[in-house]
Design a protein that fits this description.
By secondary structure, the protein is an alpha/beta fold. The strands form four sheets. Strands 8, 9, 10, 11, 12 and 13 form a six-stranded mixed sheet that branches. Strands 3-6-7 form a three-stranded parallel sheet, with helices on both faces. A two-stranded antiparallel sheet has the order 1-2. α2 packs across α3 and α8 runs parallel beside α14. The chain is globular and about 60 Å long.
């Protein structure tokens, strides 16, 4: 019994030191990942200094293994047929919200290729990210905590989701598709010009956009993705929304929860309402639109008091109204052509990226 006791005692000490060593190693690894990256002063041969408004890094001159943690980058990859070294399922879902016709096309690009699924969770799994061996990671502003983690794995280009055009150009630059990015923006701006010319003075029309959720209403303020498109066409925002945006005076005040006391914020000449049933994502079809949530909202006596609702000037939008990207931008324009200008965009200015 004494021998057994001594053996167990030694074994216990051994296990203790093994566990302690593992804790120290893992802790050191986590601290290394979380450490602030050093300031980029100069880049080694074969790399170039890459700077956005919010981030700097050294990126390979020829990036061949790119991993997108950005829905806007994922949309661009689809548009040019670029095959990423990996993909994050949850980012794919967000990139193609309410655009199920794009999901099948994206699945064709990543099916049977070296692309690896990083997983459905957020933040991305670090082990899977390392295994993908990316030489560049495209992340998005507002996800800085992720960038700090993965920047120790590969250089990160942190895109600003509030400026979708700049993000598109940066993405094109990284993967060597700058010409394609510039042409896409030119095609988009041509459609904007055509839409603008359908009105004597588009600034006389005020437009609201509201994301209808089961628990709250989220108003788009000037500065949001869709609001940038509205401004480019020349439409205006209701005075109450402009005043609220000025009062908030915050860099991220692009969306605002609407309380029952401030339903008036939703007023406008035209309003776009869209919902989302986030639990109903299908691998083949994408997210299922939350039309039922919008239909229920329209039966609310308080909402029915709004002049824009009484006039019937409320129209369905989609979650692409809040997600920057080239496909989303064209989808918003399509809605504006149909419901504000009252024309068929396919007859007036066809969407150049529309898939058959």
């Amino acid at each position: 019994m004494k021998k057994i006791g001594k053996f167990l005692k030694k074994a216990g000490r051994f296990l203790f030191f093994v566990v302690l060593a593992l804790v120290v190693i893992i802790g050191a690894f986590v601290l290394w990942l979380r450490a602030e990256p050093e300031e980029v002063a100069a880049c080694d041969a074969g790399f170039r200094h890459f700077e956005t408004d919010i981030h700097t890094s050294c990126v390979p001159e020829v990036a061949e293994r790119v991993l997108p943690f950005s829905p806007s980058a994922t949309q661009f990859f689809l548009a040019v047929g670029y095959q990423p070294v990996g993909h994050l399922t949850i980012v794919d879902q967000v990139a193609f919200i309410d655009q199920p016709h794009l999901v099948a096309a994206w699945n064709e690009i990543i099916e049977g290729t070296p692309a690896v699924t990083i997983g459905e969770s957020w933040p991305p799994n670090l082990e899977s990210t390392i295994a993908a061996e990316p030489d560049v990671i495209l992340s998005e502003y507002g996800l800085s905590f992720v960038s700090k983690l993965v920047e120790r794995i590969a250089p990160v280009v942190e895109l600003d989701q509030r400026d979708w055009k700049a993000s598109l150009l940066f993405t094109g630059d990284v993967i060597g598709e700058m010409k394609a990015a510039e042409e896409m923006i030119a095609d988009y701006e041509m459609r904007v010009q055509i839409l603008r010319e359908l009105f004597d003075d588009p600034s006389e029309i005020t437009i609201s956009a509201v994301n209808v959720r089961p628990d709250r209403l989220v108003l788009h303020l000037p500065g949001s993705f869709s609001s940038q498109i509205i401004e480019e066409v020349g439409f205006s925002f209701p005075d109450a929304q402009i005043q609220l945006d000025a009062e908030l005076d915050q860099p991220f005040s692009t969306y605002h929860d609407v309380s029952e006391e401030r339903i008036d914020l939703m007023e406008g000449d035209v309003i776009f309402l869209y919902g989302l049933e986030t639990a109903s994502f299908d691998e083949e079809e994408g997210f299922v639109s939350g039309d039922a949530v919008v239909d229920e909202l329209l039966t609310d006596p308080l909402i029915q008091q709004l002049d824009v609702i009484q006039r019937g000037a409320h129209y369905p939008g989609g979650n692409y109204w809040q997600r920057g990207g080239i496909y989303s931008a064209h989808a918003v324009l399509d809605d504006l052509f149909r419901h504000v200008a009252g024309v068929d965009p396919e007859e007036i200015a066809p969407n150049p990226l529309l898939l058959e």
